[in-house]
Design a protein that fits this description.
309 residues, alpha/beta, 7-stranded parallel sheet, globular
């Protein structure tokens, strides 16, 4: 366990024996929470870009995006292998033949050894899972489902468009195919205090979730969150608050859970607040220092709580 938690980079190095980097892809797919199937306008923190790079709008194919990313990561990190990360919007939200073509195009690139598929738990069915299982039989494949919070009241407030039960069902069905699941959670959502955020960690621990990606709720331009923030109805977490909550969450997750991320990467030109969210390495280092100071290792509280259940 590296850095007192099971970090994703170490997990990949153990599996492949070399430096492996994720390459973020924009496949130009949509979202049912925007096109009217589930809702319109999306989640209150999401803008029209949908966490994407804009590469698809610039006319870049999956192959071109991957090659550009691979060249950059080889220079910067001396990486030898790569994971194709379908990130923008919902990457199982398309006809099966379209999805098959996109995933196959990614895997056709030399040294791409895996796929990470970012999507929503209401965007899968048996056909999608059978397709993904066929790819998982020949490469590393992770499903990344946005949960954000385990509290239905919060999910309604942020206009998420699905509930906790939908997430549980998706996890159960995906893992039945032998596909590991990474859950995305967001800290600092409106109306959530520290105990509520830790309840989400306990919920994921009880599911024995395979991986977790932790995000800070940051305010970006042209979203309902921006209006809430500017009206004074929402206060962003301070760095110290965020660091403490992340440490508590790590203590509650089983040691086997792979921690894919400790914080997010806002686009600098879109960020409204908090500005400290741009200092990713400083924030990660702050979490690691606090774990050392408090002598916390991943799972320490999970083991204790398991013992009294």
């Amino acid at each position: 366990m590296g850095h007192r938690y099971r970090d994703y980079n170490t997990y990949l190095r153990e599996r492949f024996g070399c430096r492996v980097q994720k390459i973020t892809l924009d496949a130009g797919l949509g979202c049912p929470n925007r096109d009217g199937r589930t809702g319109s306008g999306g989640c209150i923190y999401c803008n029209a870009r949908g966490s994407g790079t804009g590469a698809h709008a610039r006319g870049l194919s999956i192959r071109e995006q991957l090659q550009e990313g691979i060249d950059r990561m080889r220079r910067r990190y001396k990486a030898e292998k790569f994971i194709a990360y379908f990130q923008s919007f919902s990457n199982t939200y398309a006809p099966i033949d379209v999805l098959e073509r996109l995933y196959a195009e990614a895997l056709s690139i030399p040294d791409v050894v895996g796929l990470s598929i970012g999507t929503r738990p209401d965007c899968i069915d048996s056909d999608v899972l059978h397709l993904l299982a066929s790819f998982a039989s020949r490469c590393l494949l992770w499903m990344e489902y946005g949960l954000q919070s385990s509290h239905d009241g919060t999910l309604t407030a942020i206009h998420r468009g699905h509930d906790r039960a939908c997430f549980e069902k998706a996890v159960r069905e995906t893992r039945a195919f032998g596909i590991p699941v990474c859950a995305h959670i967001i800290l600092g959502l409106p109306g959530e205090d520290r105990p509520i955020m830790l309840d989400t960690a306990r919920f994921l621990a009880d599911l024995d979730i395979d991986g977790v990606k932790i995000h800070l709720l940051y305010v970006v331009r042209d979203t309902p969150m921006e209006a809430l923030f500017r009206s004074g109805a929402y206060r962003c977490l301070e760095r110290d608050e965020y660091v403490d909550i992340v440490c508590d969450i790590l203590s509650l997750l089983p040691e086997s859970t792979v921690i894919h991320r400790l914080t997010g990467d806002p686009h600098p030109d879109e960020l409204v607040a908090p500005l400290w969210a741009l200092e990713k390495q400083r924030n990660v280092d702050a979490v690691r220092r606090r774990l050392e100071e408090l002598n916390i290792v991943q799972g320490i509280r999970w083991r204790k709580e398991e013992g009294i259940r």
